[in-house]
Amino acid sequence: LLCTLDGGNVTQTTFAQTVSESGALAAQAGGRRGGHWFSTNPDKAWGEKFFLAYLPYFFALNYSKQLMGWMNVGTFWHITQNLALLLPLIVIPAVLRPAATGRAWWDNYAVKMVLWMFAYNFVVTYFGCEYFFDVLGMVYYFPQVSVSLDSALVGSGAQVIPIGMYFNAPACFVVYHTIAVLMMRRARTIEVGALKPVLTVVTVVAVAYLMAFLETRLVATDANKPYFWYQDLGWMLKYGSIFYACYFLPSFPMVFRLEEKAGDRWALSRVVFEALAAAAIVLVLIDFATHFMRQA
User: Fold this and answer.
1) Residue 117 clears pLDDT 60, i.e. is over it
2) What is the dihedral of CA 148, 152, 153, 158, to 10 degrees?
3) Given CA atoms 64, 207, 114, 50 in this order, what sign does their dihedral have?
4) Measuring CA to CA, which residue among 177, 143, 161, 194 is closest to residue 255?
5) How many whole angstroms separate alpha carbon 150 and alpha carbon 154?
6) Mean pLDDT calculated for residue range 89-107
7) Environment class of 228 (CB within 10 Å of its CB; exposed 0-12, middle 13-18, buried 19+)
8) Over residues 177-188, mean pLDDT
9) What is the pLDDT of residue 192?
10) For the chain, how far is it from start to end, CA to CA, in angstroms?
11) What is the 3-class SS of the chain, one letter each residue?
12) Is the pLDDT of residue 17 over 80?
């Protein structure tokens, strides 16, 4: 609206403000039509950018483990190197965010994301690795690691899960799920009309398969082979990646909900319960998928 002053004359200042505000609104609308990557929740957006900034450290440490032969270590160093991968994801936000948000160290998206992944990965590692051993032909060989933890009833029991894997997996999955959440948000905020649900589903499925395939290809290397390998890598990449993608089909959309809207503040109990629900769905999916994998 234009305001009139001094006998009906429109001031130049008011007109300029109106034009500026209209331009800003148009730009925002255009941005919404084009979609966006980061959350409208400032705390979550900070966490997502932090996780992306963590990527060079993540790749550098994992590459160093392969290059320096750090896979073949005793229990203490096995746990230490995996904690070195995970702890920065907790400690850095816990130190930096309280001053910015005025909340407790644990009451921020980044810490809750790591908690979500830890709860989720505990279940899918404890039970799910047995499927990787017996269905997909994955092999762990850590002769110097004396502490392990795995299911008493699920699986053949021919292999065990080294304790450090319970710290390694959440760090990896924070990276995978952050990338997936960004891709899903972009798909959900692009104006494509009635195709939006289809685009979202396609994005989840495609990113799930991509993450499964890339992890297998990048981790099952010659440098790691004395300690980690697949009995038939070609089969694993072709068919096993579909099986592994079942881990992500429930978890991607469920973790997307975590404090997605501005002002959202989830209780830690809700974070854990939702993660455990996702893990339960995964166990059903991979058990069902096993029927087909044995025929592939």
Assistant:
1) yes
2) 40
3) positive
4) 177
5) 9
6) 96
7) middle
8) 97
9) 87
10) 68
11) CCCEECCCEECHHHHHHHHHHHHHHHHHHHHHHHCCCCCCCHHHHHHHHHHHHHHHHHHHHHHHHHHCCCCCCCHHHHHHHHHHHHCHHHHHHHHHHHHHHCCCCCCCHHHHHHHHHHHHHHHHHHCHHHHHHHCCCEEECCCCCCCECCCCCCCCCCCCCECCHHHHHHHHHHHHHHHHHHHHHHHHHECCHHHHHHHHHHHHHHHHHHHHHHHHHHHCCCCCCCCEEECCHHHHHHHHHHHHHCCHHHHHHHHHCCCCCCCCCCCHHHHHHHHHHHHHHHHHHHHHHHHHHCCC
12) no
**Residue 82: is its pLDDT beyond 50?**
yes
pLDDT above 90: residue 245: yes
What local confidence, expressed as pLDDT, does residue 247 receive? 98
Structural contact between residues 213 and 237, judged by C-beta atoms closer than 8 angstroms = yes
Read off the amino acid at residue 269.
S
> Do residues 266 and 257 lie in contact, with contact meaning Cβ atoms separated by under 8 Å?
no
Token output for 155: 């699986």
**Burial of 184 per CB tally in 10 Å (0-12, 13-18, 19+):** buried
Q: What is the mean pLDDT of residues 143-162?
A: 95
Residue 278's identity, in one-letter code, is A
* Bridge partners (DSSP) listed for residue 34: 190
Q: Count of alpha carbons within 13 Å of 249, Cβ hemisphere only? A: 18
Lowest-pLDDT choice from 57-66, 104-113, 159-168, 242-251: 57-66
Q: What pLDDT score does 33 carry? A: 60
Q: What are phi and psi of 80, to 5 degrees?
A: -60, -45
